[in-house]
Design a protein that fits this description.
single chain, Metallo-beta-lactamase, Chain A, Arc Repressor Mutant, subunit A, five-stranded mixed beta sheet, 14 strands, about 20% strand
């Protein structure tokens, strides 16, 4: 499991927009799905990842090809992208732009590899600057992995030691290909004027601090990246630069989607869906349910985030924390901490750091 790829162990239960369980992975079959008006969805493989594939969206015309996201820098992904474009009458040299929703490896790195072969330019949300710099620093051995360093404060020092062993004694990663800087940093609200189509980049922090979605209001389309997914809830704040308020930001970003006209949902993982608003409401309801469960588990207090995570069910199979592998335990601890921080902001819990550096949560003291 790659620390810049994972989504987290808390998939949403199937909602009314979803297909039966037996058909859940039909969307990941190789090829190009024609979405109309020169737009195609091309799923690219993620071997060994539970997500199965990542959707790349190709906007085609006489000008060539512009892509939303790129896939992972793998030979199989590159070959499948070339094959899918070939059936549409294009080749990799016809790619002009990669518009990337966020910094995770399955979205960004194939773009960097193809750019090195003089195929296209890369645009990325400007709020991903810090994450990209941290990935480069960790890869070069100048920094440690932030999501491991956060674990002791969550009451999970033993888990931190286990995860460090997985990554090696230096607590750094081998050099990560595909993390060069983009050609262009996109500001929130940046307008992308393409032949026959205009997109607006909208900053949607939460999954990562710099995540953006691309809105096509004229065609009523939302290229949602990992912000709104039809099958699962994306991991929150699992990124190189840790942010306590990642879930608060994510919930705000979801509500922002409801202020836009409803659009067809074009997600990074899973099938296209007719309504962004419908799925956003499901996700908001899901997190309110998780917040209620988290508050119930933390109410006796004082408790650590890791202790609360041990009281909660995980995955749609309702597994206990101890049943998860160490990396998914790490994700669960981080998800729980993110929910606890929302409860602190809402005034339903208080956080206090003990002398040993561990954060404890408890109900707020009653007024004197």
């Amino acid at each position: 499991m790659d620390y810049v790829t994972s989504r987290g162990p808390v998939p949403q239960e199937p909602g009314p927009q979803e297909e039966p369980q037996a058909d859940r992975h039909a969307w990941a079959k190789p090829g190009a799905e024609d979405l109309g008006d020169g737009l195609y969805r091309i799923p690219l493989p993620l071997p060994g990842d539970a997500l199965t594939a990542v959707n790349v969206y190709a906007m085609t015309g006489e000008h060539g090809v512009d892509l939303i996201d790129s896939g992972m820098a793998l030979a199989q992904a590159r070959e499948e992208l070339a094959a899918a474009l070939g059936k549409l009458g294009y080749g990799l040299p016809d790619i002009r732009n990669f518009f990337i929703t966020h910094i995770h490896q399955d979205h960004y790195t194939l773009a960097v590899e193809l750019r090195s072969r003089q195929h296209g330019q890369i645009a990325l949300g400007e709020a991903e600057r810090a994450n990209l710099a941290q990935i480069q620093a960790v890869s070069a051995g100048r920094a440690q992995i932030g999501f491991i360093e956060m674990l002791p404060a969550l009451g999970a020092a033993e888990l931190a030691a286990t995860v460090r062993e997985i990554f090696g004694p230096k607590r750094t990663l081998p050099p990560l290909p595909g993390y060069d800087d983009p050609d262009r940093w996109l500001a929130d609200g940046a307008q992308l004027d393409l032949p026959g189509r205009t997109l607006r980049a909208i900053h949607t922090p939460g999954h990562t601090s710099g995540h953006v979605v691309f809105h096509d209001p004229a065609a009523a389309l939302l290229f949602a990246g990992d912000h709104v997914l039809p099958h699962i809830t994306p991991s929150i704040g699992f990124q190189p630069v840790i942010n306590r308020q990642s879930l608060s930001q994510y919930l705000g970003s979801l509500r922002l989607m409801l202020t836009l006209p409803d659009s067809r949902l074009l997600p990074a993982h899973g099938p296209v869906r007719p309504s962004t608003h419908a799925r956003v409401r499901e996700l908001l309801d899901h997190h309110e349910t998780r917040l209620a469960l988290t508050l119930q588990a933390a109410t006796p207090g004082p408790v650590t985030a890791f202790a609360v995570a041990a009281e909660l069910p995980w995955t749609r199979r309702q597994r206990r924390l101890a049943e998860l592998d160490p990396m998914n335990q790490l994700l669960a601890a981080g998800e729980t901490a993110a929910h606890l921080e929302v409860l602190v902001v809402r005034g339903q819990l208080a956080r206090q750091r003990a002398a040993d550096g561990i954060d404890y949560y408890r109900p707020p003291a009653a007024p004197a």
